[in-house]
Amino acid sequence: MGYPWQRKAAAPILFLWGSVAFCHRLFHFNFLEFIGCAFSVSVSFFFIYHVALFIYRNWVGVWLGHNADIKTHGPWAVITGCTSGIGRAYADSLAKRGLNLVLMSRSKEKLVELQSELREQFPSVQTKIIIVDFTKGPEIYGDIEKELQGLEIGMLVNNVGICYQFPEYFMDLPDRNQFCTDILNCNILSVTMMTSIVLPGMLERGKGVVINISSLSGIMDTPFMTLYAATKAFVDKFTQDLELEYREQGIIFQVLIPGYVVSNMSKVKTSNFFVPSAEDFVEKALSCLGLQSRTCAWLSHQILHACIRIGQFFRRDVAGEVMHIDIMISRKN
């Protein structure tokens, strides 16, 4: 159970004014010196607090075992978009931890292949496949709800999503109207409806985990991928507010905000410090579950996130100008 925000705010406020009053009494500051001291102490405290919190959430809390034990939330996990990339990595990681899996994707062949591989590697893990095309509309969710009835679902991973094939002006998108419908259904409606289906059972049991996959593109200027970035901004906001609504009822919400990860969507084939493999990214994300409700998980992505936040204090159109120049050059070539 969390403390009310007033109690959380009291400690740093008392520390700040206590430090300033002590310095004032010790050094006999005048008014301007007092203001300068107060500002310096507050900035220092802010910096130290966030560095300490960052270290705790990423390493110390994990080492101390303060992160979530996913097996205690329920025996079944539901993963959408699970046949490749981050979704596939979640299937492998959760099966390794002993969770039964509901695997959801539109390709029957890939689902059957994945199910066969998981059964071979983890014989004790039960698997269930649901063939579904998330670019379709609300009509698909009645059948999904029926398929999930009777399962004690402890975790939902909303991973499914589609992206642009290449950066493009909104009005120049190929088959624009159909693409708009498809991406909104897949990236927004799926997250909303799957959460709506699974969350009531979690609330009834007083425990559960919902993980939604957003993107760094959702928090920064991303012209020429406007609609994709907007859908990821929705996922980010949706998850943050659900976390505030249901944290006191035992439900863990986590939104992941990755940069590039090795996957079919990113079209990156080789991992490095800046672009992790899907497996490494998912292991890191699971390790901080319960410690970070909104995270980039991977260290280089967290650094990039911080740089983006700092950069947003300056000109907002810098990213747009850079991408505009880049796309114009590519068109000329």
UniProtKB/TrEMBL annotation:
CDD domains attached to this UniProt entry: 17beta-HSD1_like_SDR_c
Keyword Oxidoreductase: yes
Annotated transmembrane regions: 31-56
A cellular component annotation (GO) from this entry: endoplasmic reticulum
Pfam families in UniProt: adh_short (PF00106)
Keyword Ribosomal protein: no
Top-rank lineage group of the source organism: Eukaryota
Alphabetical list of Gene3D superfamilies matching this protein: NAD(P)-binding Rossmann-like Domain
Keyword terms: Membrane, NADP, Oxidoreductase, Transmembrane, Transmembrane helix
GO molecular function: oxidoreductase activity
PANTHER family, A to Z: RH59310P
Family: Belongs to the short-chain dehydrogenases/reductases (SDR) family.
Protein name listed in UniProt: Very-long-chain 3-oxoacyl-CoA reductase
Organism: Orchesella cincta
